[in-house]
Design brief:
This protein has two helices and 20 strands. Strands 3-11-9-5-7 form a five-stranded mixed beta sheet, with no helix packed on it. It starts with a helix and ends with a strand.
Length: about 230
């Protein structure tokens, strides 16, 4: 580890290579796939003016393992400079549950293309965009816009647990306990999660969430219950 640190430190002062990173990104920060949909789509954009990229895309399950529940097409293609291309996502598996959402991860990796006349002193780095993909049963489609208001909190033996009674994944941002900022937290459907730290006389918590379109909701403040 020490040798690696020395190498990285020396490399930082070498004038030879020029680093090139990709200006490639996805058009959305999250994706909701309704079970009633035949397919969903999103765009991959290349904002660089000169560099083409090879785009490789795949989907993983909640644990980070490659999943065959979805087909993503095209899985591999060249994205030209200053252009964008659509990725189509098609569900082809068996629903894990009909009473709650299932979480997946969609990754689009941008690999710089090498040409014969590429400068030898240029370093090319592959980059990847990774977003949450929520598979949502169609019977839950009309309830999602109220879910973010349903979070409750409990204080027991100086520990705080937050409860999500809804069938949706809910990401809490700007989470605070009595005004003290906490780490963002994603609550799985119909689950509880305990906050890090000890809280002796905490009274309330506040939070905002991220909706289906990637926007933040209004701040909510809740009183903590004790038991």
């Amino acid at each position: 580890m020490r040798l690696l640190s020395v190498i990285l430190l020396l490399a930082a002062f070498l004038p030879l290579p020029q680093a090139k990173a990709g200006g490639v990104g996805l058009s959305v920060t999250r994706m909701v796939y309704l079970s009633s949909a035949k397919q969903a789509s999103l765009s991959v954009r290349n904002t660089t003016k000169e560099d083409p990229f090879l785009i490789q895309s795949w989907i993983e399950n909640e644990q980070g393992d490659r999943s065959n529940d979805f087909v993503i097409t095209p899985p591999l293609f060249v994205l030209k400079p200053s252009s964008e291309n659509a990725l189509k996502v098609i569900f082809s598996g068996e629903p894990a549950s009909q009473d709650r959402e299932t979480l997946y991860w969609l990754t689009a990796k941008a690999i710089p293309q090498m040409s014969d006349d590429t400068q030898k002193n240029v370093l090319h780095f592959a980059s990847a965009s990774r977003i949450k993909l929520f598979y949502r049963p169609a019977n839950l489609a009309d309830q999602a816009d109220k879910a973010w208001e349903m979070i409750s909190g409990n204080l027991h033996r100086n520990r705080i647990s937050l409860k999500n009674p809804t069938p949706y994944y809910i990401t809490l941002v700007e989470l605070k306990v009595d005004g003290k900022t906490m780490k963002p937290l994603m609550l799985a459907p119909k689950s509880e999660a305990e906050l890090e730290g000890s809280f002796t006389q905490a009274q309330q918590f506040s939070y905002r969430t991220i909706n289906d379109y990637g926007a933040w909701t209004a701040e909510v403040t809740r009183q903590l219950t004790t038991r």
